[in-house]
Structures are given as structure tokens and as C-alpha cells.
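TL;DR need C-alpha cells for one chain.
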Amino acid sequence: MQLGFVGLGKMGGNMVHRIHRDSDHQVVAFDFSEDAVKAAEGHGATGAGSLEELVSKLEAPRTVWVMVPAGEATEETVAKLGELLDAGDTVVDGGNSNWHDDVRRAGELDAKGVHYIDVGTSGGVWGLEVGYCMMVGGHEESVERLAPILDTLAPPDGWRHFGDAGAGHFVKMVHNGVEYGIMQAYAEGFDLMHESRFPIDLKEVSGLWNRGSVVRSWLCELAERAFDAEGNDLEGIRGHVSDSGEGRWTIIDAIDHDVPV
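>> reply
TL;DR here they are.
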């Protein structure tokens, strides 16, 4: 299968790498960074210097995967692709868009005969090796056409189609809300142990919890790695992360649906 791919950052670049390493699919890749395009070409992709060139190198029906930051960058990219693509082509948003935006974009593109798929993608920089968990929304026909790419990017049985446009990012939004809640629970527990009278080694605690405990998880494994690298005080890690939206959106949707969170 041929796939256009826009956005070659840490996740996007690794996804293109995985597609070419693990399949015979062909990617035409574009990014504003020439170095990122060259890196993708090094993995076997065909580079493009613009969206126009990317579209021109794809055979109909075209499928273009967008992996750029949510918000204005995604909005502008999808709108531009909507002008360049033809009826029967498909745009895939694999970033972290608000599902309400997916519903709107799908309606706008549908009027032109262009399909829209949203793919909530989890896996981070580790996805290159272990695969990406993918939560999918969009027309059944378009999702079926994209399935060979999803099969390559995901681990075995690692993606699901949850409904029309917006469903994928809705499930990913809740996924991230759950993730943040788990992280906060771990943080509060480790903080309490750190402030206790006992000389508790938090690396040992997190490692132990990953061996048979009901609270074992990949996030706890990452905590063990962090304590091993940074020590009990985590002095090299800032106690702040920027708001990417999903946690806040989860709370807003929970309020709208009268669900306590």
C-alpha cells in the first residue's frame, strides 16, 4: 500500500521507519525539516518538499496520514489537504486532536467526497520496537483500506475501530485522562514514602510493585527507570508538564455526560 505521511517528529519519524522496516508498504514523506525528510528517506521512504509534491506522488485513491501537533498545525494541514485531494481520497489524523474537531472536519471533507479517519495513537518513542496501540474512528470503507498500515504499526491485535469520525480520539482522550490519574496516584504514593521516617528506596519499591502486584504497569516500569537514573529525589526532573488538552477535555466531557471523575 502507498501512504502519504506528513509530520516526521519523534513519533511520526519512527512510524515511517517501522512501516518500511516491517512491511513492503511505500511511504511518501513530508516535513518542514529537511533533515527529518532525509532521515525518512534513509529508512526507505520517498521524500517530498511540499504537500503539493506529496499528493502528486501518490496514486489514487490516496491516503495521507497527518502526524503534527494538535491545534492550528493540524487544522491548517487538513484544510490544505482537503483542497489538494480528490473525491475518494482519505485524510488520517494520527495526532491528539479534540474529537469535536474530528466530527467537524469529517463533515467538511465529506462534502468534497474526501474521507476522514481519526487515530488515537499511544506508544510514544517506544512504539518503533513494541508497536503502537491505535484507537480508530471513521467510515468503515476507509478504515478497511487503511487496515494494512494499522496492522503494521500496531502490535498483534493492537488496534480497534470504535465508530464514526471522532470515536478514535474520544477513546484516546479518555485513555489519557486515565493515564494522568494513574500517574498522579503513583506520584502521591511515592511522595508520601519519600517524606516518611523510613529510608525507603523508591526504585526498589517501583521495581517490586512490577513483580506480581495489582498496581504493576508500564507507567510503574518507567518510574523505576526514572528513580534508577535520577535517584530518590528526582532532582533532574521538573515537577511540571505542559497541558496538552486531553485531561482537561476528559473532565469537560465527563461534566457534559454527568459522569463523576
